[in-house]
Amino acid sequence: MSIPDEPLRQYFTLLTDLPLDEIDQILSPGVNPRDAKDYLAQTIISEIHFPGAAEAAARAFRDRAEGNDPEEIPEMWIPPDQLDDDGRMMVPRLLVKLGLETTTSKARQVIEQGGVTIGPNRTPVKDPKALIAVEEGLIVRVGKRKIARIVTRPPV
Fold first, then answer.
1. 2 belongs to a structural domain
2. CB–CB of 118/125 below 8 Å?
3. What is the pTM of this model?
4. How far apart are CA 144 and CA 137, in angstroms?
5. What is the 8-class DSSP label of residue 70?
6. Which CATH number do you get for residue 42?
7. What is the mean pLDDT of residues 124-128?
């Protein structure tokens, strides 16, 4: 959905086997470019994989756009020696350790802007100095796209 609208015709002609009259119909005035992009994505995925994969990818995209968690969430392990005596960690450091932000300063900024939620109820974290209990299965989100689940055992 992030591709520009202007080269859509080129994408259709170069990346699909659709007839030109069908492409003209898809890109006709009054058609929402988002719908054309969705059709393009489904057509490409169907040609590479199979039609069911295209629908699954479209459903996953819509779910993420609506703010729902993906079916598969990356699992990240936080070594116990990086936690305080009560098994907690400051939120900015946790975001960096989970790979959801690159620096603690960027993490603090996104926290202050209200872009961090934790747990199944999506509890907002607004205090960059907050300590979070690092527990098995805790889901941490930054915005709509960055997400991780904490596991208490190291990866095998």
1. no
2. yes
3. 0.66
4. 19
5. P
6. 1.10.240.10
7. 95
